[in-house]
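quick one
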Amino acid sequence: MIDAPALRARLDEVRGRIARAALRVGRDPAGVRLIAVSKTFGAEHVRAAAEAGQRDFGENKVQEALDKMDRTGDLDLAWHLIGHLQSNKARKAGARFSVVHSVDDADLVRRLNEAAGAAGRTLQILVQADLAGEATKHGAPEAALDGIFAAAAAAGHLDPIGLMLIPPSVDDPERARPYFRALRAVRDQLLARGVPPGRLRELSMGMSHDFEVAVEEGATMVRVGTAIFGSRGRP
Ligand SMILES: *Cc1c(COP(=O)(O)O)cnc(C)c1O
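structure w/ pyridoxal-5'-phosphate:
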């Protein structure tokens, strides 16, 4: 059973914290989109959040997400793929998600473009940057970003709208701040090098433990799971 009033209260609290963080730095709270990360939770959790006014949902596994989309097809929701995308899943993902946040190489650009084209749609994408130089993690190194944006913009069925970041995991949210700041600086450098502003309007950064810091540093999309739906437990 879902405790819908409690879920609504947690959503309201997260929204309030986002708004206060935005106002602290003179930003309009309406400029931050909350993406409720529903991974591992069921369609009924999505439904309860939707009843509380939530429209954007994030998932990190393609098949799990497609199942939830099918079971909430009567609702007008926007689904965001936030996790690493294996190339053999690109076809399904490109046909169904509204936004893919985790594009980090030219091969994915090509596959997602084909998938979106085959489905007769345009897919919004964010380019995931790896600014910590963590070779074991996903994300494109800074030097590869221009090329990925150019490829995506030229592809025909993709609409690149910004950058996404997952900082190294740290206990103190303040230690994530330099990474959020760095992503904003990378955005500004890409703008200065002539990437059109419309392709860089979104910064997807910040999770349950650090979204307020991310908003202070310019996040336009925050991906929040635990603080809304509760703990996912351990596999
Ligand atoms: C799971 C996940 C989140 C949400 O994490 P929480 O700590 O539960 O808020 C955000 N972004 C990505 C990429 C994730 O995989």
